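ingest -> validate -> predict -> emit
validate: passed (alphabet ok, no gaps, 199 aa)
predict: started
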Amino acid sequence: MDNLEYERKHYASGANYVAGVDEVGRGPLAGPVVCCAVIMPKGQIIEGVTDSKKLSEKKRNVLAEEIRKTALAYNIFQIEADEIDKINILEAVKKCMTEAVLGLKIKPDVTLVDGVDTHLNINAEYVIKGDLKSYTIGCASILAKVYRDNLMVEYSKTYPGYSFEKHKGYGTKTHIDKIKEIGPCPLHRKTFIKNFWGQ
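emit:
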């Protein structure tokens, strides 16, 4: 698969800076949703970049370090559980993606966005399965995933009862059982757990 097709199209149309943006953490019961926007240099490819979910943790960490060193600019933004509960996850993802892009130190000419058209208030092209189809979105996917995973490992030290370091806040049976047993913590999205935690 040619995962530079979208970037080449925009470079050929006169764009100098093409950003990619992706989110991680839309589905978990706990923790923030995290978005990363990144601008990579033209003509310089890091081999192995793809959808972060298809990579081992070790490979993701190696690639993330290389992406951070190579990127012209990148920015990570997160929205916490309490705000997700207030505005809903779709609005949280839209806000998170927008803020990630607006926070870049270089203003992109166009941004490739993973997913369907959510009408972000930026100059964007939406690419379904973009983390597979676009190199730049793939880079953003890896940075966001590594950042969020590391964050959840740190949170597990503050809230040790839930094994966040293992499931990263996703709704595993162990995680759900723990919520039922000891109740939620401040990291939990109350709107996500209401079906089995109605208190």
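The CA atoms of residues 98 and 120 lie 7 Å apart.
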